[in-house]
Amino acid sequence: MPDLLLELFSEEIPARMQRKAAEDLKKLVTDALVEAGLHYEGAKAFSTPRRLALTVSGIPTHSAATHEDRKGPKVGAPDAAIQGFLRGAGLTSLDQAHIHSDPKKGDFYVAHIHKPGSDTKDVLANAIPAIIRSFPWPKSMHWGTGKLQWVRPLQSIVCTFGPETEEPEVIDFEIDGIRSGNITHGHRFIAPSAIPVKRFDDYVDKLDNASVILDADRRKDVILHDARDRVFALGLELVEDEGLLEEVAGLVEWPVVLVGTFEEEFLSIPPEVIRATIRANQKCFVVRKPGTTELANRFVLISNIEAIDGGEAITAGNGRVIRARLSDAKFFYDTDLKTRLEDRLPKFDQIVFHEKLGTQSQRILRLQKLAAAIAPLVGADVDKAKRAALLAKTDLVTEVVGEFPEVQGLMGRYYAIAQGEDESVAAAIEDHYKPQGPGDRVPTDPVAITVALADKLDTLTGFWAIDEKPTGSKDPYALRRAALGVIRIALSIPAKLPLNVALAHAIDGYNDQTESEALTDYEGAQSHVSRDDVDGEQDLDNALESFGRRLRRELDAKTPEIIADLIAFFADRLKVQLRDQGARHDLVDAVFALGNQDDVQLIARRVEALGKFLDTEDGKNLLAGYRRAANILKAEEKKGESFDGAVDAAHLRLSEERALHVAIATARAEAEGAVAREDYEGAIAALARLRAPVDAFFEAVLVNAEEPEVRANRLRLLNAIRSATLTVADFSKVSG
C-alpha cells in the first residue's frame, strides 16, 4: 500500500518546541486520514532544527464508500425539526427522505445517506494545507507580505505519496506562495544544495549523506557516546544532563563533540554554580574527576559543523564566553561571602510574599514559630530549627541566586557553612524546599524535616485562609505539590506527624499576625486619646484588650473549618500518592471515613493491611457478608427503624446466631485493642475470624423472622457486624 512523506522545512525551530510539534503533526495528519475513512498501518514523526518530517505507511489509495441511515422526526413534526433534519442529513427536501413505520412510534422520516469513497490524494491535498495554516505552535510569526503564521519562516514543503514499487506522486498544493514538491535541503553549511527525494527511506539516506541526522534520539545517542568517549580519553567523566542533552540535540543537525578548557581558579566557585553558568550561557556540559563530585576545568560543547581546523576556533570562542561568565559568577560569589546571612534579613521587609499574607519578613517570623512547634514532633532540636527557619530564605537576596534562581537553598547552605553555622542548620537551608516533585529526594536531617514541613504547611494554611485554593487544573501557588511534599515527608520519618496539630500551629501563626496588625490599626484609629492622660491611657488599654479578645475569638472560630478542609485536601493527595505506590484509592476513602484520621503514616499502614486482607478469600467473603448485612439493614432503616441497641442473648434461638454473637464480641475487642497498639495487621486478623460465623449465619438463619423481637434482635446482630468492621475501616466505601 502507498506511503506518505511530508516535510515542512523552515528557519531554525526553537529546540523546546520540536518534539511536541512533531507529535502534533503526526496526530493532526493521522486524525485527518481516519476522519476521511483512511486507515493506515503506522506513522512516525521526526524533527531537526530546520524541519518537521512525517512518514505514514500503509494508506489505501481510496476510502471506502459509506452508507448511513439517519433517523429523523415523526411525520407531521414541526417545521423547525424537519428543517434541522434536512440540514443535518444534507438533503434539500423531504422528497429525498424515506418514511418508515413503527407499530409503536408511528411513521417517521429516515435519510439513506450514501457517501462515495474519496481519493487519498484529494484528501491529503485538502487536509495538509489546512493543518499547516492552523498548526498549534506556542508562538508563531508571519513574514514578508504573507499571511501564513509559522514558528519561523517556512521555506519549502515536501509531500509525496505512492507505493514502494512505483515512483511516488507529489501531492500538489500551495500555501502562501510555497508550492509542495519533492525537493529538500541538507545541512545549512555542509550540504545546502537542493536534494530531490522520493519516499521515506530514500529521504533519510539522502539527508544522512547531506550531513543531517533526522532522528532526534539518534542525535542524542551520538552526542552522549561521543562526549563520554572524548572525556574518558582525558581521564575524566562526563556530568550527564538529560535536559541539556535534549536541548542540544534540538540545536544541531550534525552533532560534533568538542572539548574546551577554562582556568582552574574558577574551580573555587561551588560546582553547581559552575554548571549552571556553563549550561545556561553556552549550552555546554561540565566534566568531573572519575568517581568524585569534583569538577575539572573542562567543558564539552556540541558543534553543528565539522570545522577544517578541528574545532579549535569554535572551542576558543566558547571558552572566552565561559571565562567571562565564570568571572562574573566568581565576583558574585565572593561578594556574597562578605555579608552574613542574618544581615540580609532587613531586605525582606520590603518584599511582599502575598498582598493578603504579608511580607517575607512576616513569613520568616511565622516559619520560626512554626518550626519551634513542629521540632518536638519530629525529634529535632528546637533552637537549631528556629535558626534554620530564620536563615532559610536569606540566600534569595544574594547575587548568585539573583543570577541563577535554580541554586536557591543550595547557595544558602554554602554561605551558612562559610559563616560557621551548624551542619544541620546548613542542611535545612538547602533542603527545606524539598521534595519538589515525585522524583525529588526527601530531607532526612530532623532539622531539615522540620523547616521543610513548616515551609509547606505555612504556605497551605495561608492560601487556604484567604480562599486561594487549587481549582480544577489551576494551581498557581503549587499547593498540590506542597501537600504531596508534606505527605512524602510524613511517610518517610519514624515519628508520627498529627496533621491536625501541625496545621493548628500553622494557622496560629497567621492569627497572631492578623491580630497584631489589627491591634496596631485599632490603636492608630484611637489616636485622639492622649498618652499624657492617665485615665485615657487606661481606657485605651482596656479597649485594645477587649478588641483583641473579640478578634481572637473570631479568628480561632474559623480554625476548625480550615483544618477540616485541608485534611480533606490531604486525603485527596494521599490517594494520589498511595495509588502511585499501587494502593487502591477506595481503601483510602474507607480509612478516612472513620474520622479523626490525620496521621498519614497510620493511614498508609491501615490501607496496606486492608488491601492485603481484601485480596484473600477470607477478606472477599467477609466483605460479601458485610455487604449482605448492610443491604438488609439499609432496607429496614429506610422504614424509620434503628438497630443500634445491644443484642439480647435471650432471643438468640439458633446456634449459628449465638456463635456469631460471641465471635463479634471477641473480634471487636481484639480489633480495638490491636488498633490502640497501632497493630493494624492484628486488627485485620481479628476481623478475619468473623468470616466463618458470618457465612454460617447467613446459611442457616432467616433474618426477617415472624416474631418481632427475634427479627429485631437479628437485625441488631447484623448491625454489630457493621460496627465491628468500623474498628479498622468503613467497608461501605470499598468498591468492587
From TrEMBL:
GO terms for molecular function: glycine-tRNA ligase activity. The keyword GTP-binding does not apply. PROSITE patterns: AA_TRNA_LIGASE_II_GLYAB. The keyword Cell membrane does not apply. It is found in: Cytoplasm. Residues 624-723 form the DALR anticodon binding domain. Keywords: Aminoacyl-tRNA synthetase, ATP-binding, Cytoplasm, Ligase, Nucleotide-binding, Protein biosynthesis. Its EC number is 6.1.1.14. Signal peptide: none annotated. It catalyses: tRNA(Gly) + glycine + ATP = glycyl-tRNA(Gly) + AMP + diphosphate. Belongs to the class-II aminoacyl-tRNA synthetase family. Tetramer of two alpha and two beta subunits. This is Glycine--tRNA ligase beta subunit. The lineage of its organism: Bacteria, Pseudomonadati, Pseudomonadota, Alphaproteobacteria, Hyphomicrobiales.
